[in-house]
Design goal:
The complex is a heterodimer of chains A (303) and B (340). Chain A is an all-alpha fold. Chain A has one domain: MetI-like fold. Chain A contains 14 helices and no strands. Chain A is elongated, with a radius of gyration of 22 Å. The two termini of chain A are 28 Å apart. Chain B has 340 residues and is mostly helical. Chain B has a single domain, classed as MetI-like (MetI-like fold), CATH 1.10.3720. Chain B contains 14 helices and no strands. In chain B, helix 1 runs antiparallel to helix 14 and helix 5 runs antiparallel to helix 12. Classes of the chains: A mainly alpha (303), B mainly alpha (340).
């Protein structure tokens, strides 16, 4: 990393991914502030995080958000007191939607983080070491990748039992192979760079090379993938909850609310619409941001 | 000859993957649960059944032997009996997969027919309002939760506009007035082939909304990928040469450019197949489509273990096989791949 920084200060860097971190961040900020879509997505994500953190204080009826029922106010349409209406147990939907942001954020962040923590080192190991170890790791990775992610998650939840924690575990198990494959590709190309050769020739052990040289240089593609993945994991966990495998009632969860509102969709359309809208806007923001980051860091790769 | 080698290697790899899949499902079905026999039979078993199932599954034997039993049963087509319906799982799957496949194929065909031209046009008109609209729609399609979109479409097209039916594959009155001959299980084909036009119109009308909802994500992905690859291809020298030769523009685009751009698009189509496979679960729930997805969800909620494991294995195996076909198709179109 230090050698790369030295080189950067001396000469121009070929892509944004090669700049030192501080200049990278400044460049990202520059691009985002000038692109209305990217700006929009960042603002939405900030709002999402804010709502997730401050949920109980923002919601007009916090206890109802968590599950306290009020049978007197069942299935009310949108009004000034209940901007999103109420659900079939009388709970204010706006509060439920606000409070459900926190588990959504926590689960998706957790799943992606675990997937990176498992997948990236494995991928770096596989790419750097090559040979039989590489083959072994890639066989296992390809095996997990052969399953459609949601199908594997469903099967794991079926084996473990429904519930938010099991769903999160299942999703993490389904997601780590993507990062292994990603980092392995990067590691293979980095393996031939001069700074790695230099480090090896002065006797730096491989583990240190992987930790201090290879992994940090993989951060940009990991970041791009992680941003989009947070959105995709939110979608997946909401999908699991919709089926009934994720969060269980009375927990506040957007997917669960859409599922509950389904029976009433024709008359009380607001019940399913607003939680679904929350999912949609959040995932949209993460996808837009991921696209922008991808354009910045790797304009040639358009996956 | 290189191509043949490549195909054989790919097939061998796929077989290895299938074996690995069976190991994973075996682990999920027999190793992880605390009492696999109880899960296999279901609640309230007859007195001797539990022991007999333990014998049958080989639960008293070491794990590798259990796996051998598992594979032996698989090869015989014995996936166990569904706890909910008391019939063999394979039969349940066999009854239901045409419905799901019809939905899947309709959606995918629609997605390719719409997504590819959109991507091509978008690349040609890069920067125009049309291009911006296509890009926006693509991202929207990719971000929308399928179940929510389906619900919204139901409200708009059934309740508000009264244009399309709410759910199901066809109107149940049809069963008496003009029943569909179960030739292939694909109602669209069956009614068309037997000249049952009333049924064909009805089935087609019922298929529109579910297929549309399912196709949203693939259209987004395919349009984006086609657009990106076309933009790169159109800037290549051979396109400039073809134009300099006076080749008609449509020929240049659809023969030279598209043929070179189709590779990554095929990869994306393979990826969207994974999405479509899992997407059918949600679509079938929302639209009450009597297919494999609905059956899976019911099995999941009723912890019908044999059914769940059977479906997981077969769905994953199907996915592997389709990926294999996509890869072979890619190698056939682009000879460079078989050299890799």
């Amino acid at each position: 990393m230090q050698i790369a920084e030295w080189l950067n200060r001396r000469g121009g860097a070929a892509e944004a991914g090669e700049l030192a971190p501080r200049r990278q961040a400044a460049h990202v900020a520059y691009v985002i502030l000038r692109d209305p879509l990217a700006l929009f997505s960042v603002l939405v994500i900030l709002a999402f995080v804010l709502v997730a953190i401050a949920g109980p204080w923002l919601a007009p009826f916090p206890e109802q958000g968590y599950g306290k029922t009020n049978v007197a106010t069942r299935m009310l349409p949108m009004s000034r007191e209940h901007p999103f209406g109420t659900d079939r147990l009388g709970r204010d939907l706006l509060s439920r939607v606000i409070i459900a942001a926190r588990p959504a954020l926590l689960v998706s962040l957790g799943v992606v983080l675990i997937a990176i923590l498992i997948g990236a080192p494995l991928g770096a190991l596989a790419g750097f070491a090559g040979g039989r170890l590489d083959d072994l790791i890639m066989r296992i990775t390809d095996l997990f990748l052969a399953f459609p992610s949601l199908l594997l998650a469903m099967a794991i939840v079926a084996a473990l039992g429904p519930g938010l924690e099991h769903a999160a575990m299942a999703l993490a198990i389904s997601w780590w192979p993507w990062y292994t494959r990603l980092v392995r590709g990067m590691a293979i190309s980095l393996r031939q760079r001069y700074f790695v050769e230099a480090a090896q020739s002065i006797g730096v052990p491989s583990s240190v090379i992987i930790l201090r040289h290879i992994l940090p240089n993989c951060l940009s593609p990991i970041l791009v993938q992680a941003t989009v993945d947070i959105g995709t994991v939110i979608l997946a966990s909401m999908g699991l909850a919709f089926i009934g495998l994720g969060a269980q009632p009375p927990a506040p969860d957007w997917g669960l609310m859409v599922s509950e509102g389904r029976t009433f969709i024709l008359d009380q359309w607001w019940y399913s619409t607003f939680p679904g809208l929350a999912i949609f806007i959040t995932v949209l923001a993460f996808n837009l941001l991921g696209d922008t980051l991808r354009d910045i860091f790797d304009p040639r790769q358009y996956r | 000859m290189r191509k043949l080698e490549f195909v054989i290697r790919r097939i061998a790899m796929s077989i290895l993957v299938l074996v690995g899949l069976s190991v994973i499902t075996f682990t999920l079905a027999r190793v992880i649960p605390s009492d696999p026999a109880a899960l296999y039979i279901g609640p309230h078993p007859n007195p001797g059944d539990l022991e007999r199932t333990r014998e049958k599954l080989g639960l008293n034997r070491p794990v590798p032997v259990q796996y051998a039993y598992y594979v032996r049963d698989l090869l015989r087509g014995d996936l166990g009996d569904s706890i909910a319906t008391k019939r063999p799982v394979l039969q349940e799957i066999g009854d239901r997969w045409p419905a799901s496949l019809e939905l899947l194929l309709t959606a995918m065909i629609f997605a390719v027919l719409v997504g590819v031209p959109l991507g091509v046009l978008s690349a040609q008109l890069q920067g125009s309002p049309f291009d911006v609209a296509v890009r926006t729609l693509s991202i929207v399609g990719v971000s929308m939760p399928a179940f929510w979109a389906g619900l919204l479409l139901q409200v708009v097209f059934f309740r508000n506009l009264h244009l399309l039916p709410l759910a199901g594959r066809f109107d149940t009155d049809l069963r008496f007035s003009s029943p569909i001959q179960p030739l292939t299980g694909f109602y669209l084909i069956d009614s068309a082939v037997t000249g049952n036009w009333i049924a064909l119109k009805d089935v087609a009308w019922h298929t529109v909304l579910p297929a549309l909802t399912l196709a949203a994500y693939p259209i987004g992905l395919i349009a984006r990928m086609t657009r990106a690859t076309m933009i790169e291809v159109l800037s290549q020298d051979y396109i400039r040469t073809a134009r300099a030769y006076g080749t008609p523009e449509w020929f240049t685009i659809y023969f030279y450019a598209l043929k070179n751009a189709i590779g990554p698009t095929l990869t994306v189509i393979g990826l969207t197949l994974a999405y479509a496979l899992t997407g059918t679960f949600f679509i079938e729930i929302v639209f009450n489509w009597p297919g494999l997805g609905l059956f899976t969800v019911h099995s999941l909620l009723n912890t019908d273990h044999p059914a769940i494991m059977g479906i997981t294995l077969l769905a994953a195996a199907g996915y592997v096989i389709i990926n294999l076909m996509v890869d072979v198709a890619q190698a056939w179109i682009d000879p460079r791949i078989s050299l890799a």
